[in-house]
Design brief:
0% strand; 4 helices
């Protein structure tokens, strides 16, 4: 097929639409349980109350390059409670009942 009669700018535009778009993977990754536990320990080294704790954890995760949109508040508190119950940390925030 001879495409000499097609204007060059139109041909480039059509070829861009036809080419499969490459999915760009973000360089950021989801934090694992171990990463989250490390960040929680780091967050507890600051003088923070329970109401600001989750925001600080999100901030520290982002500083280390982690994707936080799938890390829920529930997951952060569950991990904190797990660490207290297993004896990895003491209940500094005084939020875990039945210790």
């Amino acid at each position: 097929m001879d495409l000499d009669w097609v204007p060059e700018d139109v041909l480039e535009e059509v070829l861009k639409e036809i080419e499969p778009k490459k999915k760009v993977k973000p360089n950021r990754k989801r934090p694992t349980r171990k990463d989250l536990m490390r960040i929680i320990r780091k967050a507890l080294s600051f003088d923070v109350g329970p109401q600001d704790f989750v925001d600080l954890v999100y901030e520290l995760l982002e500083e280390e390059g982690f994707e936080t949109k799938f890390t829920t508040v529930k997951r952060i508190w569950y991990t904190y409670e797990y660490m207290v119950r297993k004896g990895f940390i003491s209940d500094v925030l005084d939020v875990v009942k039945g210790r």
